[in-house]
Design goal:
Elements: E1 7-13, E2 18-21, E3 27-40, E4 47-59, H1 60-69, E5 75-89, E6 92-106
Parallel strand pairs: 4-6
Antiparallel strand pairs: 1-3, 1-5, 2-3, 3-4, 5-6
Amino acid sequence: MASLNRVELIGNVGQAPELRHTPSGMPVLRLSVATNERRKDKKTGEVIENTQWHQVTFFGQQAEFISQYIGKGREVYVEARLEYGRYEKDGETVYTTDVIGRRIMPLGSAAGGQKGAPSAPLAEDDDVPF
């Protein structure tokens, strides 16, 4: 039986990405991506905009690429997968949903990003722990 776990986002980077490293030296980067939805209020005709923020985690070479070439405000396409988890905090179970990046592609001009950023998609990162 086939299965698919894929999330696709097109939005703008909300903050300058910050690259960190695990104790073993693997690069890890969390990227904040904003997506917007517009709708018209049926009663008033006013356009209402709803912004959702998505925290996407990238590993390995992609994390390093993003830290160098993709900056705040840059429009990007992100392909990712969802990963669910849970942990105990103060006797309560906390459930988590993580968005793990597989691919990223800068879109549009480099406005808000670094100059000279490649516009081609990145291949899947072999270092991503699946």
